[in-house]
Amino acid sequence: MNQYRRLRDESSEEQCALELEQGHARKQPRRSNNAKETLVSIEQLLQKLSEPNGESCLTELSCEVNGLLPRHKMEILRLLVQSLQLHPMQCGAYATFVGLLNVCDFEFGADCLSCLRQQLWQALEAGEWQQARNLLLLLAELVNANVLTASSMLQLLNALLDAAQHDCYAWLVLSSLPLLARELYEKLESGLQALLKRLSVYMKQRCSGVQLQLLRIWTLSERAQHDYLELLWQQVLQLQGQHWMLQQLRRPYTNFDGTLSSALQHQLTERPAVAATRQLRYARAHLVARLFAPADLPLSQQLPAELHFERHLIDCHILEILQSQHLERKRCAALLCAYSAAHPQLALPHCIVELLLLQMLQLPAAPYPTINYGVILIELCKLQPHSFPHIIVQAVDLIFAQLPSMSVACFDRFVDWFSHHLSNFRYQWNWLDWQQCIHFHQLHPCAMFVRELLKKCMRLSYHQHVVQMMPAAFAPLLPVAPVPDFKYIDERLPGAQLAKQLLDVIRSKCTVEVVGGLLEAATELPEELKINVLMQTLLHLGCKSFTHVFCLFTKFHAVLKLLAAGNELNQLAMLQAIFELWTNNEQLKTVLAERLMKMRLIKPNIVVRFVFSSALKPELSKLYLWELLNVSIRYTKQHLQGSEQQLTEQLECLLLGIVQHAAVALAKQQAVAAPAETDYWSHWVLGRLQGILFAHVELVRPFGDKLNKIVSDFEHCKRLLKMIENYLAYIK
Amino acid sequence: MSSSVELSSYRDQHFKGSRSEQERSLRDSCTLYVGNLSFYTTEEQIHELFGRCGDVRIIIMGLDKYKKTPCGFCFVEYYTRDEAEAAMRFVNGTRLDDRLIRVDWDAGFIEGRQYGRGKTGGQVRDEYRTDYDAGRGGYGKLLSQKIAPNTDNR
Predict the structure, then answer these.
(1) Domain that includes residue B32, residue range
(2) Residue B94 located in a structural domain
(3) What are the annotated GO cellular component locations (chain A) (predicted)?
(4) List of chain B residues whose C-beta atoms are within 8 Å of the C-beta of residue A459
(5) Is B54 a member of any domain?
(6) Do A459 and B1 touch (CB under 8 A)?
(7) What is the pTM of this model?
(8) What number is the ipTM of this complex?
(9) How far is CA A517 from the centre of its chain?
(10) CA of A428 vs chain B CAs: smallest distance (Å)
């Protein structure tokens, strides 16, 4: 140990000398100038601490800071807290830094603690749980760095448990306790045991939710899906079994034991102000799922078992990088690779892919958009083409194998991500591995997955491309060519005469009035047929691109408006015409229906009514109709004008409408369908309804009771009732 | 490393207004310029990709000034700045039709800007290119004019 420490110190001195040499010119004016530059360089050094092997600059950092301390205490503390929030897992390095300063300046140690305490109180009061956890991690490490007494930290953790009205408090204690547990174990064992006893009581009486069933990515699966707090508790218990010896943690303060042990320690006296009466936003419970089993990992690498606290630390490291860098995909991927390169003996690339994919699939919603995870995975593949692409193949195959029990909301995100991923890798895939799904029922999840996936690939490329890239055996799952079907080509159809006239005048660039006149003159045709003819004609003429058809819509807006205004049947007829002409083009059906809403020609509730019309029943098992429903919700949210109250009412009305219609459809299906296990249609409809409810949890919460009222009329639809019941329990 | 939503060094020389006005409109803009597209990439494909970052308000395809056919660029406008930033972050430098496409801020579409500004009607960059790019009409325009007589003689 001594020898190691000496080596360590030498290397930091070398580093110091090197920096001095390089930075000589840079440092010169700093002395005469102001302290601003030094603060900048402190910020950079704090940043550097967070990098692998960044501890080497600790000595330098404390040298730099020492000179500035008296005058710039507040700035330095601000920088410290800021760095901590970005890189909480580096709390050991930050604690050592504070520890070294505390040795020379006891008062700074006191100020630092009072600042951290104040920040913690604020975070607790505001319900900023993540921030509170980060502060607690640092406080725990400050015990190890000999700044804070173990007993006062124990008191603080006990005080948090006193306040535990919610899992969040237990989570805070369980996250931070292991960092100083060894210290407590050696010095205050009885106190540690008492705290663990309290935690155990809490964990036993905690009603770990039945409603969490709903959050499972896979309903039946051998893969673990743990309640986040229960998992953490198991991991803590496992660490206790190891006598609190942590291997995966950087403990830079051990290199400075000699110096640090000479310092005086501080006490934390006050108890945290826990807002007992205020309504706090508590973090929602979630599940932690795993994809890879130990047998899936390479022979030369391993991972700590999932119930080991070390695994929790690895997850925290990866999540920290993701959280702070997800918007900068290149930097994020580079940091993830650096983290994994620093631990070559661990199967970190597997862990990274698993975490990214499963967070993307997380229910009720992922923290970031699907494409965000997609681009980070793409960058990882670019940086390490010999490891990540293979791991992704492995992961996709594992998920594919479990599609039959996958929640539909996750299924849809998986389709979205994988189509985009393929489009960035020339659509290369071992399709033949999935050949068995050709023989499955056409609504079986595996067959459905390939079908939906190919449709999305087609949207990102083109039909011919998809046909060419697929092995011949997949013909039954290929998308139909998305070409228009203008029915009035057949001159015997009623309305064909009018269609021909309209085609001629519109082609010769006529005015709106001429079209209006022709429509009025065709008195022999019922109004809905006239609308069908007009819409089909416009769509046919504009079939070359969105721009073409949008231009025609805009040009003839006045006529369309006149027909649509306040007349629901006419609005339905407009949608009907789109769905007839573009019957094989799902993208156009959705985009054009959205366009009509944005042009204020049709109302969102008409879209809902149309989607659930009996003619579209077979289509309801497909992804695109539910996308259209989501689009109509988005439209209501973002584009409709009116007071806030009106908007809320409209949204409520729309969402309740969707639930009501879906319930009716499910009830009808149940009357005619096979037993529940093979009724794939209901699986898709119920699953997508749940997906919509999950996507709008905040919207639904205020009127949750009304959902109950709606489904209470459908007593025999057991699966629907169960889903709504679980959902309401979850959002409560 | 710079942030992926920062302005690039490119400035449209035809902008009507001062340099600082231009910077300001770029910083508030919800419009993006999308470049290095294949001539064959359609509006529908662009909508599918950019729709994954937000609600697309409008797509304006870049056209050859004379032939009125797509010439490898377009403008995408979103409703909000956040959506446009997401596209800068998640689409710039990724593939569409197997080409790495470029996404950059644009000060907002003005009629006329949908046309290529090169002498031959397409984008200027396609005039001076010396490589062969099947997705963008083969060799650069100037080069292919030189090559063309030869092929005629054969």
Answers:
(1) 19-117
(2) yes
(3) nuclear cap binding complex; nucleus
(4) 44-45, 48
(5) yes
(6) no
(7) 0.91
(8) 0.92
(9) 53
(10) 12
Q: Which residues of A touch B4 (CB under 8 A)?
A: 327-330
- Residue A546: its chain B contacts at CB < 8 A? 43-44, 47, 59
Considering the domain boundaries, does residue B102 fall inside one? yes
* Nearest residue of chain B to residue A326 (CA atoms): B89
Q: Which residues of A touch B63 (CB under 8 A)?
A: none
Comparing C-alpha atoms, which of A601, A517, A532 is closest to residue A560?
A601
Calculate the CA dihedral of residues A52, A58, A60, A63 and round it to 10 degrees. 160
**Percent of all residues in chain A with a pLDDT value above 70, rounded to a whole number:** 91
Q: Which domains does chain A have, with CATH numbers?
A: 10-214+223-253 (1.25.40.180), 326-477 (1.25.40.180), 603-731 (1.25.40.180)
- Cα A596 to Cα A560, A588, A650: the distances in Å are 10, 12, 18
Phi-psi bin for B98: left (phi > 0), alpha (psi -120 to 50), beta?
Answer: left
Whole-number pLDDT of residue A7? 34
What string of H, E and C letters represents the secondary structure of A103-136?
Answer: HHCHHHHHHHHHHHHHHHHHHHHHCCHHHHHHHH
Cβ-nearest to A371 among B45, B52, B96:
B52
A461-490: pLDDT as tens digits:
999 999 999 999 999 999 999 999 999 999
**Which structure tokens are listed for A156?**
């603080």
Cβ contacts of residue A523 below 8 Å, gap of 6+?
none
Residue A382 CA to its chain's centroid (Å): 23
Q: Identify whether B57 is part of a domain.
A: yes
**Mean pLDDT across A291-310:** 92
Report how far residue A488's alpha carbon sits from residue A486's, in angstroms, rounded to the nearest whole number: 6
CATH number at residue B26: 3.30.70.330
Summary count for chain A: helices (H), strands (E): 34, 2
Among residues A82, A81, A83, the alpha carbon closest in space to that of A47 is found at A83
First CA to last CA distance, chain B: 53
DSSP B9: S
Count Cβ–Cβ pairs < 8 Å, chain A vs chain B.
70
Q: Which residues is B35 bridged to in the sheet?
A: B102
Half-sphere exposure of B3 (CA within 13 A, CB side): 8
Q: Would you state the pLDDT for residue A482?
A: 97
Write the pLDDT tens digit of every residue in A356-380: 999 999 999 999 999 999 999 999 9
Total structural domains within chain B: 1
* Closest C-alpha among A346, A144, A375 to residue A252: A144
